[in-house]
Specification:
three-stranded antiparallel sheet, about 110 residues
Amino acid sequence: MMTAIERRDAILDRLCVRRHDQVKNLAEEFGVSEKTIRTDIEVLACSYPIETVRGRHGGGIYVADWYHRGRKTLSPEQAALLKKLAPSLEGHDLEVMNSIINQFASY
C-alpha cells in the first residue's frame, strides 16, 4: 500500500508522461476513491503547474506543456538528427535509437 506522498509522486510522474488524465482513471489505477485523487491533485497543484478543467469532453487534469519533471530533453535539432540517422540502422540498433527518441524528444 502506497502512502499519500508516494501516490502523489507517482501521479505527478504519470501526468508528466501522459500530459492529461481523468480523475476516474487515476482513481482506478491507484485503487483509491475519486475524492482521494481530487485531494491529491489539490495538494500537487500548490507546488506544480497542474490544472483541472471541467467538462465531459476535454475535461480532466493537465500538466503544463512546458513542465517536465527532472526530464532531460533533446533539442529539436538533436531529435531531427537522430530521426535522420534512424533509417540507416537495423534490428536492435534501430529499436534502441527509437527508444532514445521516444524517451528524450520533446513534443
